[in-house]
């Protein structure tokens, strides 16, 4: 059985436009914006997926990723930033492991 | 920003204020493109990675490069971009004065925004100012530390 779609064409197009134009703007912008743009894309993807995702995935999306501030950059408290981002990575990995490699 | 529409009269008041912003030699090399169209705003946001807010109006501050060339400015001259700054500062103050929230965005694809806004040949958008009614909750600032004027100033002698 195939998994149900969690993005419609509008959601996917919006994200595609964001990614393509972010690739272009990043050529000229501060390097620290790179992770911020990727996380914004992740936030938008999570927001679009949330309503149609399985309960477990929706719960994972609502975890540490949703707590990551939208405008956070590594400048300033780099250690805290990395720690928080590692927390998001761990949370995503834990969900993936439970779902695909229990 | 909330989803409450911005009145066209408010935008016209802002644009009227912006024309008084100082420009080098009073040349007015900037042009403005305004929109409140939801579809245009949606697409504008799609091609503007720096646009976090969902504005209900926007004004693009453009440089008319045909006019710049006509005045004989060499391409590397910074004057036209400095004037984008003075126009934008005036725009932000005028927006505040009419009770709107405003936020400038420079992270967008110039090429894509040119298409979305149907910009005439030679016009390039340098800043897009998002406009809307301020929401009670705002995202945390990118760098919360506030510098004082003393941090920013060097006296001579």
Automatic annotation (TrEMBL), chain A:
Pfam families: DUF6092 (PF19585). InterPro entries: DUF6092. It comes from the Bacteria. This is Uncharacterized protein.
UniProtKB/TrEMBL annotation, chain B:
InterPro entries: Nitroreductase, Nitroreductase-like. Keywords: Oxidoreductase. Residues 2-133 form the Nitroreductase domain. SUPFAM superfamilies: FMN-dependent nitroreductase-like. It holds the Pfam family Nitroreductase. PANTHER family: NAD(P)H NITROREDUCTASE YDGI-RELATED, NADH DEHYDROGENASE_NAD(P)H NITROREDUCTASE XCC3605-RELATED. This is Nitroreductase.
């Amino acid at each position: 059985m195939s998994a149900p779609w969690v993005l419609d064409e509008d959601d996917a197009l919006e994200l595609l436009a964001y990614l393509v134009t972010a690739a272009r703007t990043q050529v000229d912008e501060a390097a620290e914006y790179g992770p911020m743009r990727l996380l914004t894309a992740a936030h938008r993807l999570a927001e679009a997926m949330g309503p149609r995702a399985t309960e477990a995935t929706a719960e994972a999306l609502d975890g540490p990723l949703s707590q990551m501030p939208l405008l956070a950059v590594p400048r300033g408290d780099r250690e805290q930033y990395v720690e928080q981002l590692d927390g998001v990575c761990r949370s995503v990995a834990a969900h993936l492991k439970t779902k695909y490699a229990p | 920003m909330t989803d409450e529409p911005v009145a066209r009269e408010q935008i016209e008041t802002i644009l009227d204020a912006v024309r008084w912003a100082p420009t080098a030699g009073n040349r007015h090399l900037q042009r403005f493109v305004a929109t409140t169209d939801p579809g245009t705003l949606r697409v504008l946001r799609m091609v503007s990675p720096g646009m976090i807010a969902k504005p209900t109006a926007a004004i693009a501050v453009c440089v008319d490069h045909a006019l710049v060339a006509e005045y004989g400015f060499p391409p590397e001259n910074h004057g036209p971009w400095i004037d984008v700054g003075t126009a934008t500062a005036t725009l932000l103050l005028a927006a505040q004065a009419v009770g709107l929230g405003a936020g400038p965005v420079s992270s967008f694809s110039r090429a894509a925004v040119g298409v979305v806004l149907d910009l005439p040949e030679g016009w390039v958008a340098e800043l897009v100012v998002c406009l809307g009614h301020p929401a009670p909750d705002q995202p945390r600032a990118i760098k919360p530390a506030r510098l004082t004027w003393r941090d920013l100033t060097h006296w001579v002698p």
